[in-house]
Automatic annotation (TrEMBL):
Catalytic activity entry: RNA(n) + a ribonucleoside 5'-triphosphate = RNA(n+1) + diphosphate
Gene that specifies this protein: rpoY
Keywords: DNA-directed RNA polymerase, Nucleotidyltransferase, Transcription, Transferase
Matches recorded under HAMAP family: RNApol_bact_RpoY
Superkingdom, taxonomy of origin: Bacteria
Lineage, highest ranks first: Bacteria, Bacillati, Bacillota, Bacilli, Lactobacillales
One biological process term in Gene Ontology: DNA-templated transcription
Physiological role: A non-essential component of RNA polymerase (RNAP).
Any single Gene Ontology cellular-component annotation: DNA-directed RNA polymerase complex
Family statement drawn from the similarity comment of this UniProt entry: Belongs to the RNA polymerase subunit epsilon family.
Gene Ontology molecular functions: DNA binding; DNA-directed RNA polymerase activity
Protein known as: DNA-directed RNA polymerase subunit epsilon
Name of the top EC class for this enzyme: transferase
Species of provenance: Lactobacillus iners DSM 13335
Amino acid sequence: MIYKVLYQKDQIVNPRRETTQTLYLKADNLVEARKLVEDNTPYNIEFIQELTGNSLAYEKQSPDFKLSTFPSNN
């Protein structure tokens, strides 16, 4: 499954919508997606959304759509 992760680069500063960033990753489930990001980045995760069907097709049209990979992500 493909997940869209909304995050802040800094865990100390209060989150602001204007600084929210996005990454996409492939994981078996939401728990694994969260663990991959938490274990491999210093990011403050705001929200994780599973992308399927029309949502996934829409996101793939974005020039920013790129699957992130992490060492434990096969």
